[in-house]
């Protein structure tokens, strides 16, 4: 194959996103689906993923920051948007004006949201209401309101009508990717208790707690809304097999091949030496493009119909593949990870991390992003 590719390219298959969202929605038939597109859609492009996710059946989109949500709204995304973590400087008035649901974890945050709603009334009219999802910390000990402060938060939120409307209570799981972990049931129990307290305070909120892993393994925790992230990108957080399709492929192409005799060494530091005459293929991607240097000597690529080892050090801009007695043609496609090639998960396992980190780190100025089936 001799197509011309950019030096380094991530190809995002939007049909995979649609497929994955539809699959996840079908696993949680009683709930609505919020596709999580924070961090620029886990490195896949927030707006393109958002559109594909909506086509796949998502009726909500989740972002971390208000800025991410506002960018989607201003680009014409019409579904419910929810954003959950900002700095104390964040201004909630635009969230109200642009119809974005926000998270509240403390009385202090509640006061800032109420203030935003009040100011939004000044420019968008008396009906401006801030839709709030109160977050209970059920055991992740990250954001969220500790149980001891929950009754006061619930009461204050209920009293802030009609400037704010509590539409949901929600939480986040610590160990959902380890099905059977006792913390999951413990968190579920605290979530139930928090719900009872909210009901007793006169609220009638939706509930949501399930990330991808819980969508796939804990139907009892689907409640009204599920919040899958990683699985919509086709990466499975739990060991169970599933029909998820990875959306991201990282690829490059062969720019040079050469024959070297047995005994010649390769790349900086001469960490690899040919044990027989062999053909090397030069690929113009390196650690500046997202190929971790620590994978030097322990990664494969997919090239000319099979997996082949990267030999010697990964450089800033290039790496070298041992092709034995094969001679791939110049311009041959090289898959670093994704469709047909090694998986992002394989990289993550070798690096002692998770595939979330691999794909989110692919947003780089030198790496082209291309969409398959964009706009369809
Ligand atoms: C990132 C995130 C999710 C999605 O988690 P996945 O493990 O990617 O499915 C859901 N909810 C919150 C609050 C998050 O921060």
Automatic annotation (TrEMBL):
Gene Ontology MF, one = alanine racemase activity
User: Which residues does the record list as N6-(pyridoxal phosphate)lysine (modified residue)?
Assistant: 38
Q: Which residues bind substrate?
A: 142, 316
Recorded catalytic activity of this chain's protein? L-alanine = D-alanine
Q: Residue limits of the Alanine racemase C-terminal domain?
A: 247-372
| EC number(s) per entry | 5.1.1.1
Per its UniProt entry, which superkingdom is the organism in?
A: Bacteria
The record's GO CC annotations read: cytosol
Return one Gene Ontology term, BP aspect: D-alanine biosynthetic process
InterPro entries, sorted = Ala_racemase (IPR000821), Ala_racemase/Decarboxylase_C (IPR009006), Ala_racemase_C (IPR011079), Ala_racemase_N (IPR001608), Ala_racemase_pyridoxalP-BS (IPR020622), PLP-binding_barrel (IPR029066)
| PROSITE patterns linked to this entry | ALANINE_RACEMASE
**What does the UniProt keyword field contain?**
Isomerase, Pyridoxal phosphate
Required cofactor names: pyridoxal 5'-phosphate
Q: Which catalytic residues are annotated?
A: 38, 268
What family does this chain come from, according to its entry?
Belongs to the alanine racemase family.
Describe the task this protein carries out. Catalyzes the interconversion of L-alanine and D-alanine. May also act on other amino acids.
Name this protein carries in UniProt: Alanine racemase
Q: Which organism is it from?
A: Amycolatopsis japonica
């Amino acid at each position: 194959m001799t197509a011309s590719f950019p030096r380094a390219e991530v190809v995002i298959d939007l049909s995979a996103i649609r497929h994955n969202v539809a699959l996840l929605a079908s696993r949680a038939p009683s709930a609505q689906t919020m596709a999580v597109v924070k961090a620029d859609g886990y490195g896949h492009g927030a707006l393109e993923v958002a559109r594909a996710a909506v086509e796949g059946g998502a009726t909500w989109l989740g972002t971390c920051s208000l800025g991410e949500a506002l960018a989607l709204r201003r680009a014409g995304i019409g579904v419910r948007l929810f954003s959950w973590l900002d700095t104390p400087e964040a201004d909630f008035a635009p969230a109200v004006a642009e119809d974005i649901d926000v998270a509240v974890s403390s009385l202090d945050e509640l006061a800032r949201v109420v203030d935003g709603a009040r100011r939004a009334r000044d420019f968008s009219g008396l009906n401006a209401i801030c839709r709030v999802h109160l977050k209970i910390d059920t055991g992740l000990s990250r954001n969220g309101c500790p149980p001891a402060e929950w009754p006061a938060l619930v009461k204050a939120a209920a009293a802030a009508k009609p400037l704010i409307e509590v539409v949901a209570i929600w939480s986040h799981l610590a160990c959902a990717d380890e099905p059977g972990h006792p913390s999951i049931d413990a968190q579920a129990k605290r979530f139930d208790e928090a719900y009872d307290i909210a009901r007793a305070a006169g609220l009638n909120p939706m509930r949501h707690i399930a990330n991808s892993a819980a969508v796939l393994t804990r139907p009892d925790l689907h409640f009204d809304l599920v919040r899958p992230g990683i699985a919509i990108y086709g990466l499975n957080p739990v060991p169970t097999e599933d029909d998820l399709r990875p959306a991201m492929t990282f690829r490059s192409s062969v720019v040079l091949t050469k024959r070297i005799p047995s005994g010649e060494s390769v790349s900086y530091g001469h960490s690899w030496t040919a044990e027989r005459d062999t053909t090397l293929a030069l690929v113009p991607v390196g650690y500046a493009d997202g190929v971790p240097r620590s994978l030097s000597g322990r990664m494969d690529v997919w090239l000319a119909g099979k997996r082949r080892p990267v030999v010697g050090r990964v450089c800033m801009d290039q790496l070298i593949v041992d092709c034995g007695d094969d001679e791939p043609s110049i311009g041959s496609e090289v898959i670093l990870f994704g469709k047909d090639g090694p998986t992002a998960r394989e990289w993550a396992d070798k690096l002692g991390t998770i595939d979330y980190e691999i794909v989110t780190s692919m947003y780089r100025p030198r790496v082209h992003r291309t969409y398959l089936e964009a706009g369809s």
